[in-house]
Amino acid sequence: MGADIHRSLLADGTLDRLHTVARVDTTTTITTITDASSADAHRLAHAEVLYTHWGAPALTEDALRRMPRLRAVVHAAGSVKHHVTDAVWKRGITVSSAAAANALPVAEFTLAAILFANKRVLDIAHGYASTRRQPSLLPYFDGYGNYHRTVGVVGASRIGRRVIELLSPLDLHVLLHDPYLDPAGARALGAEPAGLDDLARRSDVVTIHAPQLPETRHMFDARRLALLRDGATLINTARGSLVDTEALTRHLVSGRIHAVLDVTEPDVPPADSPLYTLPNVLLTPHIAGSLGNELGRMADWATDEVARYAQGLPFAYGVGPDELSRSA
């Protein structure tokens, strides 16, 4: 893991818990494998479990040759796509991820964004700040609110499913699009199955929770963005590549739709991008996932996995190669 992550992640007794189930060297954080110091190379050669996080180096064949005793990788974060390679599966190494823990704050962020979007909180706040007068309530708020609004969820991922669960007590109608889920599965989650174009046309808010795959690149392109109803809000907490940012920006500049963007393409928009200043856009720097003390939840879940491994139990949150092919 990155050296700067160590102190935030392994805090509040997490290291103490690790010590109860495994021999852990807390004096160092290994940030590289193939260029490791002699001391770190010795530690790696005797490691049975790797406890990883953001910034972990790729586990290539070369890296794995330096860890002949390695049997498991426990990732105290979300996706393992960036460091788990085919060489890991070929060696029969088991892998666990705290993606389910990381899904919780993303879903919470999304819930807040949905409710604020339908309530037009940003619009009202901007208007209030500019006029500094109490607006006339009835005409100003006509059509605003969350009662009987339609929310379109794109992707029945961990996050997408959690969003649907959080929406279930509210007076909202939920549409769901996921090509890997049949209509009965969507209904079982409490949502109406819908094609992606139909979802775009009918939703007051569209929230994206699909994986980054070749076939999902620009799934919201110029054509599909044009299907969004006037005044709709597009929320993207997934991956920037799922939306054609240039086409979206044109719609946003026109004022026709709104957006909550925690991710964009590129990751950081150019300094002169209108996205920074448009009143109908909430732009954040990829903060929907675990942040601050939420890192502790991922560490706790990962530490539980180490404990299961030490007891000879299967991982509760194991990851396999088939799942990676269609996950974020």
Structurally, the number of domains stands at 2
Helix content percent band: 25-40%
- Helix-strand category: alpha/beta
**Fold-level CATH name of the largest domain:** Rossmann fold
The rounded distance between the terminal residues' Cα atoms is 19 Å
Major sheet: order of its strands?
A: 6-5-4-7-8-9-10
Mean pLDDT: 92
Q: For the report, how would you describe the main beta sheet?
A: 7 strands, parallel
| Number of distinct beta strands | 11
Strand content: 5-15%
Output the number of helix runs: 15
Order of helices and strands: HHHEHEHEHHHEHEHEHEHEHEEHEH
CATH architecture of the largest domain: 3-Layer(aba) Sandwich
- Report Rg: 22 Å
| The CATH homologous superfamily of the largest domain | NAD(P)-binding Rossmann-like Domain
The CATH class designation of the largest domain is: Alpha Beta
The general outline is elongated
Stretches with pLDDT under 50, minimum 5 residues:
none
